[in-house]
Write a structure and sequence with these properties.
- Keywords: Membrane, Transmembrane, Transmembrane helix.
- It holds the Pfam family PDZ_6.
- InterPro entries: PDZ, PDZ_6, PDZ_sf.
- This protein is α+β, with helices and mostly antiparallel strands.
- The protein has 2 domains: 291 residues, no CATH class; 78 residues, Roll (Pdz3 Domain), CATH 2.30.42.10.
- It contains 11 helices and 10 strands.
- Helix 2 crosses helix 3, helix 4 crosses helix 5 and helix 6 runs antiparallel to helix 7.
Length: 409
Amino acid sequence: MEWLKLLVLSFQSIFTILFNPFFWLIIFLIYTQYKKVSRMEISLLGEEKATAKERVFSSFGVGILGGVLGTLLMTVLGVTVQLEDFRYILPLAIILMMINIRYLCFSYAGGIISLFSLIFGFPKVNVSSIIAIVAVLHLIESILIRIDGYRHPTPIFIRHDIYGIVGGFTLQRFWPIPFAVILVILAKLQGATNINLPDWWPLFIPKGLDVNNITLQLTVIVAALGYGDIAISSSPKEKVKKSSFRLALYSILLLILAAISCHIYIFKYIASLFAPIAHEGLIIYSQREEKKRRPIYKNPPKGITVLDVKRGSVAEKMGIKSGDIIWKVNNYVIDEKEDLLYILRQFPSFIWIEVIDEKGRSNVLEYADYLNGIGSLGAIIVPRFSDAVVSPQNNMSIIKNLFKKFIKK
């Protein structure tokens, strides 16, 4: 019952986030990033797969879920912080985001602040608690990636050194995470609620503090989690499975280092270095892995490859899926995208398409529109030649983009 009281108080405190200006700042920053994604989709596809508002709304809901899970873990573990611990981390994370969008992550800001505290003595923070919170947040992020990271992938064309023009997807999701943590106050407050909990709790508490002479108060912290990746050699859903597992492993190792650092001082340095370096290593390894493995959205010897299908399109209604190879339409052999366009320009009232799916199985799909005819499939085809190729690293720096606009003026 005592645990239940503490958890109820923790969850109730999350709703106070609606009055926190930092929370709405995070929402605005997430909106601007999704707006940029929408503009890229319009330039490449002629339309956006989802509006920035739709993306923000879905991220908001998933982010609240992540906040609840994070609150549950941090409350049970007894991760405590002092007021100074997070005074610098969120502003630093926003500054780092201006350098590169993927740096909107507490692993970088938390690691840097912790190292500064250890080396220079400023700011004075509880390193073990900060690293523990970073670990828990990334454990939550691994769950969010698994359930939401593949949503609204953006189709792109990339120039491959071996296979020429290939298709792929950029995966970009951002989540606002409000979570409750336990704030250490160096005094006894009148009217405080007494809850009897185990002697080992809290697990993460600043060294030298007497639990009997302090007050533990719930407070809400705003964090922003972001996931950015590319899927070239695997589908978006397969990609997030691997990314989620690796990030969960990273989080567990970081949490273990944080727990050890409570008792062995040198591990504060190890954990502070591990947080940003290992996180960056995961991203670099994933990118190199994509470049080395054979892409799945490449041009076949015969037929054309479907990279994606638009919502509500004829292709979606027919059951054409990403990765399918179209090799015959109305008995005409299709060798390139122009062959398909030639047939559709005649607005046939009935079409049947022979496709080969990703497992090599052949299927015949049909569709009829006797009233208007069929002038478009609504499928995004991997071209054999195209100037509309992008680099996954483009437009990652807000500062660089602003500088380029200033130079143009």
